[in-house]
Automatic annotation (TrEMBL):
Gene3D superfamilies: 1.10.287.1480. Belongs to the universal ribosomal protein uS14 family. The lineage of its organism: Bacteria, Pseudomonadati, Pseudomonadota, Alphaproteobacteria, Rhodobacterales. The keyword rRNA-binding applies. This is Small ribosomal subunit protein uS14.
């Protein structure tokens, strides 16, 4: 099980990303528009830099919904391989059987 602080930190980042997504997209659009003057594009980049770092989507890290584990994460299932195996062994996932040979 991951530390509670790490799980909470990730939740906080998710909220910030959602909150600033539109603002970031608008500033990036201005900054990357070649038709606009260089000064205006530079000002947009400065405003983008002043936004909180944790509001960037690249700062997010996928974590298991059950355990908070950051590694070996399946996107489709939103859980780690270990949590998936435990649930499969208990028979809680229909159609999935733990394989052993």
């Amino acid at each position: 099980m991951a530390k509670k602080s790490m799980i909470e930190r990730e939740k906080k980042r998710e909220k910030l990303v959602a909150q600033y997504a539109a603002k970031r997209a608008a500033l990036k659009e201005i900054a990357n528009d070649e038709a606009l003057p260089m000064e205006e594009r530079f000002k947009a980049r400065l405003k983008l830099a002043k936004l909180p770092r944790n509001s960037s989507a690249t700062r997010l890290h996928n974590r298991c919904q059950l355990t908070g584990r950051p590694r070996a994460y399946y996107r489709k299932l939103k859980m780690s391989r270990i949590a998936l195996r435990d649930l499969a062994s208990e028979g809680k996932i229909p159609g999935m059987v733990k394989s052993s040979w």
